[in-house]
Amino acid sequence: MLIRSALLMVCALVVVAGTLIAPPPATSASAFSDVPPGTPFHSEISWLATHKISTGYADGTFKPRQPVNRDAMAAFLYRLAGNPAFASPNQSRFVDVPLGSQFFKEIHWLASSGITTGWSDGTFRPLQPVQRDAMAAFLYRFAVSPQFTPPRAAAFGDVPVGVGFHKEISWMATTGISTGYPGNVFKPLQAVNRDAMAAFMYRTASQLPPDHSLPLIPVTRDFRLFPFSTSAFSNTRVGPAIRFASASDPRHSTFRVGGTNVNSERWSISVQQASQSDPVATVRADAGGTHSIRIPLNATTTGGTDQHMSIIQPDARTAYEAWGMQRISATEWTARYLVKTDIRGEGMTAGARASGISHLHGLIRKDELKNLDINHSLAIGIDNAQLKRLIVIGSVGRV
For the residues of 247-308, what is the DSSP string, one character each? Predict the structure, then answer.
């Protein structure tokens, strides 16, 4: 959600489950004779070849428009997982995958990992093309069944809420792994072609955090979008045991007394993303010293008297957070308080909030607002009078 010169609505704290950027694709063209530069998904297919997830066919082709069979899907995912150590069973669990058959090991790894259960008749149907809905389920489970609550509205017109694999397909849409076809359709029963499969796997790899147990893909996480370590409190989802008060609970009305502002202009934080082309400005702070910081020319502070601003530097690692920030000229600013923070750390002891916590904890993302589905907790700012009332009445439930 971070864009240059954007005023992001951040209220006290929003716990975020990250959305990661895609890993860098292979820069060299793949060796496949039928995938020249300019071919759709050329970069993703090249990435697939670079990491030896696909070796193509003996004649040097990739056959991008050919459907992916279920046995090949097993092989792709096994290699995407980094060829994990796995002892093949002495007896097949599928009646149509006998010992010695192609991709026997990979198919049984897929089953042992819970990524596939096969068919109710005991078959795997290895030579059957993978349908797009089944592909969504495979990738969802491959990503360790991420905690995901689908939005109330269907992501695609031909995948209504409640149909088979609706959750998994919604996950693909929400994460950007699939954008579907023109007309907002997914075509769930259509076979997946090999070029599209390359793109889907590439984007799925981008959803895995850098400390994920799958070792092969060195996924680069964009810390501007997903700041701080995966162990940071703002990257921890609400646990499944949480219980919410009902909408009619009187504690909600008590909480609203005094006009609490959630994601309003009053409580927003200005977050700026600087690039290498932005000028280097000198910022002199009453507390925090003097720093040379790249700041966009059109950067603005938060409204009101606090004049907060966070400026993420081009290295996507360093951020400067300020309170009482004022522009003197294009290359000169002053601040009442300035602190430098590492957005790959925990963000707990270097921030410009009164608590010392970073401003960057808790960004609400554009897709969450679009889907009206924020699947994480919100901490909000309240005044002292409200705080005293809440201490008396106890938990406020869901807000």
Answer: TT-HHHHHHHTT---SSSGGG-EEEEE--TTSPEEEEEEEETEEEEEE--TT--PPSSSS--
